[in-house]
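Example record

One chain of 237 residues, shown exactly as stored in the release files.
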Amino acid sequence: MDQVKAVYNSKTVCPVCASKIEFTKVRSKAVRLIKQDTDFCPYYEGENPMFYEAVICPECGYGAHVTSFDNISRYDKEKVRNEISSKWHKRQFTGPRTIDQALEAFKIVLLNLTCIDGLKSEIAKICMRIAWLYRYKGDQEQEKKFLNYALINYKKAYSQEDLTEEGKLDEYTCMYIIGELCKRLGLYEESTQWLSRLIMSYSDPQQKEKIPQRLIESARELFQEVRDTVAATKEEG
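Predicted structure tokens for this chain:
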């Protein structure tokens, strides 16, 4: 009996150019999460489904995260046509992806989001994934560059966006990620400020039930880790 392939193609219609296109997905049975870093970077055994989250239309160059591919306004469609499709060279993105192919796809999504002035939370999410792909490659310079882009956009999302909408990034996870990214980028004082804000929120009975127990535990561990790092640095100094 033939072994079932980990990846397969699914069909959809591009919301920008109306072409019938295919994009590649990973079978859920083929996915096994081994571990996660403290900023939620996932590690899988076998095929990594994150490689396929960036969906690109081969005909017009429109690209978006798989969860928001259909969510584009008429005004933004016109922007993509004018600024991306007009310069696009048709090419396929189906089939198994390497890290470099995933990077190319995610950078096309980032280009689209920049073109349409997309939500800062969505830009931050894509920048995080690009940073993680560079982490897999061991390219620390590029990883830090995109972690910094993610940090800038998460801060803007926190101050500018409604993070109470169901299914979207919530304000407490956003606070945690900002604190985590500050730590990774050596901004220790800022990291403790964001993590303290999250921990203080948990002490408010009205907010406590909105914050997952696991998130607050991670925040407390991270807060202590940052304080230990700062103390160790002062001792060395």
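Notes: The beta strands are 7-13, 20-26, 32-36, 42-45, 54-56, 63-65.
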